[in-house]
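User: Predict the complex with F0G.
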Amino acid sequence: MPSELICFEPACRARYAITEVLYNCPKCGGLLEAALSPPEQDPVALKRLFRARRMCNFPLDQSGVWRYRELLPFEDALDYVVTLREGNTPLLEAPKAAEYGGLKKLAFKHQGFNPTGSFKDNGMTCGATQAMRLKMKRVACVSTGNTSASMAAYASAAGLQPIIFIPHGNISYGKLAQALEYGARTLQVEANFDQILALVRVLAEKLGIYLLNSINPFRIEGQKSIMFELMDQRDWNPPDWIVLPGGNLGNVSAFGKALRELKEFGFIGRLPRLAVIQAEGASPFADFAASDHTRFVPVPNPETLATAIRIGDPVSWPKAWREVSASNGVAAKVSEQEIADAKAIIGLCGIGCEPASAATLAGIRKLTAEGVLDRDADVVAVLTGHLLKDPDYIYRYHTGQLAAPGGAPIRSTYGNRPEVVPNDPERIAALLG
Ligand code: F0G
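Assistant: Here is the predicted structure with F0G placed in the model:
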């Protein structure tokens, strides 16, 4: 049976053709997701095929997303694929970070190795492909920076016009620079992410522009491949825990869906538990998880230096909650200081990441201290963005100039100041000893 769109709401479950331009269910307003039939080939044969494709020069096989195309809703649409050879990101052991996090061992799945430096590329290749399949001309998104960088690249690669909306003054220059260089029409709106998303939804409808935020179910489908590739890299042995940062909560929705599908289709025997980590100033999901689950309360003015996850009213929270519950997972929040120090430790592993990604290690440290995570647990943390996305933050941290949104200074616990020296070999030699 061909893939379809299906309403996420259990009481509705209305179905729509995969080629309808929809972001919410027209009947009940619920979120939509792609419904896939089990692949025709058995898991053993497919695992072998996925592995063999890594040796091929065919563009779709070289992509760490399209290599797993039997698990994506694009059966009859492969001619439309827009790929920059995304995915193919490494799984890196990090002993120093493991020790800091209170674990015996820890591996990072580093999505910063993607073409535009974040996990958004895994989703955007599918979003842009769907835009081509639907014969769209213009695509739009609101973004805290990474989605816009990614969308700009994929749209321009495909010959679509990218239009991005960003919160004025609240995204890192690295990300803004990418959008400009990739040719996006860039509108800096004087509002926060949540307010701009409402605005963009109205404009997309009115102007017939295709919306590529993670409310778009095809973005979520693409991000599933992060889990496919991770399991492939681990020879299909699931870890005990997968830890990731949470903002608009698209990624946790994608990971959960991917893992459930892998289990349902017979690729893995059990589900890893999901741990979603948020920044204290933007933590509606962690607060919801800690509540009696009767009401989701958005944060009206979210604040964090990890600007990628500065989101107070995450659209995908119902999907995210389903996935966290289905995996017997958890959600937690960490402070600005904890994020900053964890980030420096990830740097000291020779790995590095942007601030939002470091929430993972800060969360792991907290969850092991609380006894939620076992010291012996097999844990993979997903680093979502590249270190160079936000160099300003790094310079400030290492030189003792970083301050939390309210102005409170952040200690440069693992600071590494550059030193100014004279052009004098004797004195430099004396300094280096
Ligand atoms: N980490 C990074 C580096 C991000 O850019 C984002 C989201 C997240 C984590 C959170 O992922 O939203 O799926 O829970 N960035 C979006 C953007 C919102 O516009 O680039 P999520």
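The mean pLDDT is 97.
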